[in-house]
Amino acid sequence: MAKGKGKNSRGWSAANTISAIAGAALAKQVLTALWRASTGKRPPANPAHPDVAMREAVAWAVLSGTAIGVARMLASRGAADYYRRSYGHLPRGMERDDA
């Protein structure tokens, strides 16, 4: 292993994880605020609970899943771009699928 490769790999893993968690947390906060503004109530804490209306449960699951997934992807892309600017190459595992 080249000198410093392991350190860069661990640093990338930590940066990617932290950015993904932060992105997901921010997305949830924004989505919760939008939900409250549009419905006038809090989003369901547990959409699987039988007392939550099916329409509300499905809407929250779809919206939150999509928003959090997109936020995590954007955060990971940002972290990968920062890594590339810092080290001159993308971190291991970030190869293009179509290459």
From TrEMBL:
InterPro entries: DUF4235. The chain crosses the membrane at residues 12-37, 57-75. It comes from the Bacteria. Keywords: Membrane, Transmembrane, Transmembrane helix. This is DUF4235 domain-containing protein.
